[in-house]
Amino acid sequence: MSILGWIIPGLIAGWLAGVLVKGSSYGVLGDIILGILGAIVGGWIISTLMGVDVTGFNIQSLLVAVLGAIVVIFIARLVSGARATV
User: Fold this and answer.
1) Which residues are within 8 A (CB) of 7 and not within 5 positions of it... i.e. 6 or more apart?
2) Domain locations in the chain as residue ranges
3) Which run of H or of E encompasses 75?
4) Which of 5, 53, 59, 83 lies most in the core, judged by the most C-beta atoms within 10 Å?
5) Residues 6 or more apart in contact with residue 54 via CB below 8 angstroms
6) pTM above 0.85, yes or no
7) Which residues of 2-36 are buried (b: 16+ CB within 10 A; e: fewer)?
8) Residue among 30, 26, 25, 14 nearest 71 (CA)
9) What does the pLDDT look like over 36-56, one tens digit per residue?
10) Phi/psi class of residue 12: alpha, beta or left (left: φ > 0; alpha: ψ in -120 to 50)?
């Protein structure tokens, strides 16, 4: 997958996760990083629990990336002790 194949879905997934969990996004670069980390974490969780590999850019992979990004946000909050602000 090309670098744009990681950046564009990462941006979308990171933005969606930020909006769903925090109420706003983390900025363009933050959303991209969050979305890419979410795709890695979500892909690992799905492949471990369900034995299914998620590849390509489709609705399934986007949902996995968003769910993974939400997990990353919650883990970051647990480690840092930060709370959500509304």
Assistant:
1) 32, 36
2) 3-79
3) helix 59-80
4) 5
5) 42, 43, 46, 47, 60, 61, 64
6) no
7) eeeebeebbbbbbbbbbeebeeebbeeeebbbbbb
8) 14
9) 888 889 888 888 888 877 777
10) alpha
